[in-house]
Amino acid sequence: MFLCDQGPYRLNHPLQNIRVTRSNNSISRVVFPNQSQYLASHQAPARCSSHARFDFSLSVSDSAAAFPSLQDVSTNGILLNGHKIRKSSVFLLEGDVFEIPASQSFTCHILKVPLRPKAHLFDPTPPVKPAHKVVGKYKIQSHCLGTGSFASVFLAIDSENYRQVACKTLNIRPHPKQSAPEAEKKKVLKEANLLKSLCHPNINKVLEVAYEDSWIHIFLDLATGGDLFTYITTGGHKDFRLLEGEAKWITYQLMKGLDYLHDLNVSHRDLKPENVLLCAPGPYPRVIIADFGLARQKAWQATLNAVGTVPYMSPEAILALANPKSKYVGMPADCWSLGCCKHLC
């Protein structure tokens, strides 16, 4: 629920789980066009009438979890907890205060927080909320953005530049009495080093890699718009399809990202909508290719190791699954996967 001077606005789930209140007596109003929520100010008619936009991103691992985000759409920027953000999108947490400079300020309150599942049977009920963790200049929050088979992604704060980033945390020694497998450690380090060497607007950028005993923390640029699959299926478009122009724009970006990878002789080998992230919510987004866990260098060489997600795998990769002696090349397989993503749009 959003509260403003004209009274409360009740919205459907998950929007009703957040409340924004004014911190002063200045006049303001909240407008809700379509699926985005814009915050406008009457006090500065000479400025841009829209200052910020609220959106909600769904978690890939749990469709019931939603993450409120705030995107600056103004000319002069806005303040989040006293720090200026400009032309970027951030996640909102409980108690965050954002302010329109020389105007009003607002406080975010999460009215309904989903219960945290137990990690073990004999954990207390409700489970104890994990504490923040500091690794170098980064403060890893307990706010989990998603969980996969081998890693979890948490929200983190870059304390030097005060910006939100994503932290992909992997445990290469899942059991305390078990030594970390060297093969698994080399695989993770190979992925991290590969990602650090990549720099492209449509590739998820690795900022830093930190090692801590059996844990590896990979800090990446934060994408607050969720993944492409969720955007297609929950975006409100007819028949779960994007508009033609938007589909072309997203496909063009994926082609540019793949072209950059293939120029470096790198194949992704698991390109799918779930591994394409939106940098910010809203139509015609900038998208980035993520999750390089199965990526391979020297991509021009044929490989016997068939990997990927079956609905998006090329025919020769499918044959390699059935016949261990069958080889295929990763770069043409990426192009096939791109075509499957385009068809889904």
Q: Return residue spans where pLDDT drops below 50 for at least 5 consecutive residues.
A: 1-18, 23-49, 58-64
> Into how many domains do the coordinates divide?
3
Radius of gyration: 22 Å
> Mean pLDDT across all residues, rounded?
75
Number of helices: 5
Distance between the termini: 32 Å
Tell me the CATH architecture of the largest domain. Answer: Orthogonal Bundle
Order of strands side by side in the largest beta sheet?
Answer: 11-12-13-14-16-15
Helical residues, percent = 10-25%
Which structural class best describes the helix and strand composition? alpha+beta
Order of helices and strands, N to C? Answer: EEEEEEEEEEEEEEHEEHHEEEEEHEH
User: What is the CATH superfamily classification of the largest domain?
Assistant: Transferase(Phosphotransferase) domain 1
The CATH class assignment of the largest domain is Mainly Alpha
Explain this structure to me?
Belongs to the protein kinase superfamily. CAMK Ser/Thr protein kinase family. CHEK2 subfamily. One of its GO terms (cellular component) is nucleus. One of its GO terms (molecular function) is ATP binding. The structure is a single chain. By secondary structure, this protein is of the alpha+beta class. The protein has 3 domains: 15-110, Tumour Suppressor Smad4; 137-221, Phosphorylase Kinase, domain 1; 228-344, Transferase(Phosphotransferase) domain 1 (Transferase(Phosphotransferase), domain 1, Orthogonal Bundle), CATH 1.10.510. Helices cover 19% and strands 31% of the residues. The chain contains 5 helices and 22 strands. The chain has helices at 182-196, 228-234, 244-263, 315-322, 330-344, and strands at 18-22, 28-31, 37-41, 50-58, 66-72, 78-80, 83-85, 89-91, 97-99, 105-110, 133-135, 138-147, 151-158, 163-171, 206-212, 215-221, 266-267, 276-278, 287-289, 296-297, 302-303, 328-329. The strands form 6 sheets. It has a 6-stranded antiparallel sheet, covered by helices on one side. Strand 9 and strand 10 (105-110) form a beta hairpin. Helix 3 (244-263) runs antiparallel to helix 5 (330-344). The longest helix has 20 residues, at 244-263. Residues 1-18, 23-49 and 58-64 have low confidence and may be disordered.
